[in-house]
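Example 3.
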Amino acid sequence: MTKLDAITEDTEIEEKRQQMYAALRALDAFGFWTIQGDMEPREPRVREVPHVWRWKDFEEHVMLAGEIVPHELADRRGIILHNPGLDMTKPATTNTQFVAYSVYMPGEVFHPHIHSPAASRMLLKSDGKGYTTVEGEKAYLERGDLITTPSGTWHDHGNEGDVPMVWVDMLDIPVAMLFNAGKFGFDYTENGVAREMQSPTRSQLYSQRHFAVGGVRPRFAEQVIGNDNGSPQLHFKYADTRRALNAVRDEAGDPYDGVIVDYVNIMDGGPIQRTQNFSMQLLRPGEHTLSHRDTSSSVYVVIEGSGSTIINGREYKWEEDDIFCVPTYMWHEHVNASNTEDAVIYCVSDAPAVKKLGLYWEDRKDSQGNVTTIGKAIPA
Ligand SMILES: [Fe+2]
Ligand SMILES: [Fe+2]
């Protein structure tokens, strides 16, 4: 008999304990020790599961939504990707991100709105005439372009082209909701007059021309956007990002992520949004990275090529325009399936928020399977 068994077998005392528990519940309180097992997991407890949302499964539904779900019915026509490990009490893609395929049909204009959560778009399909206007910067988007919508910025979307525009939205809505700080606004005015779209206040390609050259920036550039939620550069052209990858492709690269570049805030070198890190990674032909895990979660969009990611020992295959997630603290390694073509995957993680809160650590496996912890190791 253990000491605990001896304690609980004293029926008279146990009865008194139960009476006290009931009295505490009536007082809206409880003994910590009664739920301690739930509150002190030996390993991070993760409800989300790894998953691939395949574009070939979604394409017909996304295009059909463009035809049968009018603007009046859907203020934004996003099809949210729901993690199969979560129920509808938490309708999200990961613990910290809301991710969606969205479609804008030729000629459509979606009216301005503003919100506290931070958002971003990764452009998949357009003829270069689909746009979003963020705080006066009207950005026409091409495949692989990233544009952020920092917290507290007005934005409206539209398509002046001849083909549907499809992009991937990635927002930190679950983070805003965790802090009970989600707030949205829809009544946009200019000089006191309601407007259905923003008048551009920044010149064409303002972001790229002012901030996209590393190492220098114009002293007169506008440096604070919205709630000062990160980078003053909003629009990042894929051609620039791809050039940056190509420039270092013959280096050894990162053993866990291949040739990877982070999008950075030119003002401080940090991530471009407070809660999300954005990166683009090139997996060279035949490349197979080593495995690591950390206490952030990530969502990936496949921009070029095909391959797979092995997550906690199981292979998840992906190809262009697929979206997949690596939930918190899951071992993962990436594989380019081709021996001749590059694969390029775009990643948005919640690492900046996790690091700021002091909750980040990482475990790395070397090629022999030996594990090293980066950060404060906590023995189980
Ligand atoms: Fe929005
Ligand atoms: Fe990774």
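The longest strand covers residues 98-104. The CA atoms of residues 188 and 194 lie 6 Å apart.
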